[in-house]
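Q: What would this complex look like in 3D?
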Amino acid sequence: MIGLIGTAAIATGAISAVWLVLRAVTAAGGDEAAAAADLGAPAKTLLASSLLAMGALEAAIVFNDFSIVYTANHHSSTTPFPFDLASAWAALEGSIVLWGMVLAIFTWFVARDHRANRDRLAAGALVAMGAVAIFFFGVMATIANPFETCVEAGTRSCLESSPVPLVGAQGPIDGAGPNALLQNHLLMAVHPPLLYIGYVGLTVPFAYAMSALALGLPGAQWLRRSQRWTVVAWSFLTLGIVLGSWWAYEVLSWGGYWAWDPVENASFMPWLIATAFIHSALVQQRRGMLQSWNFVLVIGAFALTILGTFLTRSGTIQSVHSFTQGPIGPALLAFLAIVLTAGFGLFGMRAHLVAQPSRMETLSSREGSILFNNLALTVYATVVVVGTLYPIVLEAFSGDRVQVGAPFFNRLAVPLSFALLLAMGVGPVMPWRVAKPSLVWKRIHGPLQVALVLAALTVIFVTRTGWVVLAVTLSAFIIAVALRHGFDQAHRGAAHRSTSIWAETRRMVNADPGYWGGQLSHIGVALVALGLAFAGNLSAHTEITLEPGETVSFSGYEISYEAPFSRSEPNRTIIGARLNLAVNGRSIGTVEPSLNEFSNSAQLIGTPAVFTRPGGDIYLTLRTIPDPAARFTLDSSPLMWTVWLGGITTAAGGFIARRSKRQARVREVAGA
Amino acid sequence: MPDNLVHRLRAGATIALAAFVVISVLAAPPPPEDRAEAIGSLIRCPVCAGEPIADSPAGLAEDMMSLVREGVSAGLTDQEIIDSVVGAYGADAQVLDPPFNMETVWLWLVPALALVGGIAAALSRRRNREALGS
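A: Here is my prediction, written as structure tokens for the whole assembly.
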């Protein structure tokens, strides 16, 4: 029954996507009266059917309906909450359902924008949204159907399936359960939806850009109408990447958080280009420049989300993340080709309509600094794309295998990151048009001194490692510039209007949330850089074997192995070691690194213990625990927590900037 | 005049601080390098995709690391150690840092072209305007 409802929902979704495209094409292609036509009905039907499909999948899981292949193969009645709900997107078919639902929600928001404006631009954007929805709902209905019926059951999975609902349905008594790595930490339940909101949200600016090009309506209108969704998508993408790397740190037992794994790169590539786009969109809105470039960036960002999905979901790359394989690969690759051809083809045909107005007066200006930011981000993205694709392309064409790993990426990414940090510190206090060196110097001199004092203290008390000192200097500089600028402005406003500085700060942020949200994001990135530099350069690592009662010293901690323990949970058996941590003879806490035996996995999955103090983390991994001695890996990661705090701060800045009211106040500088 | 003096003193203090930091960093003794870890971070662990053997908890990676350590204590060069590990563990134990040769030339060339092209495009935006005489 659930399968029948789900299949019907997907079919309805596919049909309403076609319906939406047909209606929206008529509206966008006609006159003003035609453009005002109501497009709400197909958009709402699409939304309703996608919610129903997701709901049916969750219901199949919650009610343990193992006659549905997806449930049989990726869920088990012992999977605990909330990992059972997360099973709905733990594998390919379910993740496409989630994708479709997020896309339908964004499509509904675009339909609301159309209802508010009744214009061709929004109608055209709905054509593009609908076209993308046709692809994803089409995939769901055919090659990645999550509601296929099981017609021959094995003991814990399905052996033979049929796309026809209910026909000869039978299921195993219990399902296989999700991949053990996916049910070992809460972060894995929330990380994929956040990432998907980010990925799919980038469809909105892409749709508006396509509409503007197709209808011959360049100018900044498409930017303004999609800006909010670009920033929302970017914020979710940021959060998704940060929580994904936090998950890797908390679960994968190697003390690392970022390995330049192709699947990590898949989410990082669109993030880099979306970041460049958010900045260059500002230049177009304020100064009318970079109009063509913004089309290139938005098409690139969207194409990279599809490329990322291809890398993640096709099994093309063997990696710790590639849990799925199937016919989806060629379909996504074909869709990517269509996106690139349609996107850049349309852009090429309409390039003559895009205005090439005012030129930059000097590179020493806000727009100059953003140009620098765009150059660095684009080269950065190129490095990540080339490094990620090179081994695949080389193997496909010559059969030779080459590894492109962390050493390659770090060599190029580290200098680019520092260049970006520098731009992040100076750029936001440079005025538009022309920044007089004396004014810029006045704004940065104090913060520069603060940064240098902190750098000197680092040199004296912490380390003389060059990268760390440079990161301290630039991070402190960025934070000090932002805080000083904010405090100055609030202080002056408070004196002028005789209000409190807090009231003035709130007023200031509300008056220009785009700028101050952006500054908060910059502070977040500075914290991330600080944490990465410390954890990456000043970490310590050792392996030890301890018997119960023995104590070892490591990185200023005395670590005593107290006793082994074990306990059973419905989906796993936990075998662990209890250790006491002490500093200078004073006990500060107990940790329990463990190994988990999942019923559906031959491999033991470790749960490292992470103990966080202001100075950083101590990271304990249990390797083996034969009686009586146990073997541990100990890692210290100084200031690791600033990476997570910084990442969340970066996303928070985006959520504030989402409310940007700047566009209402600023006249369009040059547009069609 | 005193204003000017304050200015100069502040600028002087900034320069002195910067000089102190830069000289301290440049004059710092090189950190005691763990050669085995450094070499181990360049070799891919065959069973863990993307992770270097230095970081991986896998048993095979640990065996490979001990081979690296033997090489270090035997006084072999980095390349000799890498060759011996790759030789012993076959084609899957590849070096994570791609070599520079005809096959990988585009790996380096494409980012370089993006950088050069980007700089040229950025500068031309400005030059054109100067040519127009503003």
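A: To summarize the key features: Chain A touches chain B through 58 residues (CB under 8 Å). The radius of gyration of chain A is 27 Å.
Q: Very helpful, thank you.
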